[in-house]
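Lrp/AsnC family transcriptional regulator: structure, please.
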Amino acid sequence: MRPVSAPFDDLDRKIVTALMANARTSFAEIGATIGLSATAVKRRADRLRETGVITGFTATVKPAALGWRTEAYVEVYCEGAAPPRRLAEVVRNHPEITAAMTVTGGADALLHVRARDVEHFEEVLERIRVEPFIRKTVSFMVLSHLLPESPEAGANQPAPEA
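Here you go.
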């Protein structure tokens, strides 16, 4: 379904903010905070989902609890011009890549990788480097999260089987 353009006002922003802080907050609780009935909040939340403003609801889990004990960001440098859709095909084949984006600057893409341990990370890196259009990679291991409540600090998928 194609998102439909709809007005986005201050009440919508407050609803989205409340759901981002805790997606399990009831419509009644949100309504009490922003001055709307639970029904009005639900109607607005449904519209925000229908128009693509709200794309889903997830649980944030400690990565270590799922077996992800090693984390890194990997800059990817391509040979020539690698189209974003080709890069997207490659990263979809690696469940350890939890986020990927094309970027400005020297690198062509930036990957967020989670692995069980350093050996697993090295194996993932080697699988990425095998792609014929990838010229080089530069990795940055994450030591700690300075904003532990950020979505990047959590995980949304279990570690792959060994």
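Notes: The chain is about 35% helix and 20% strand.
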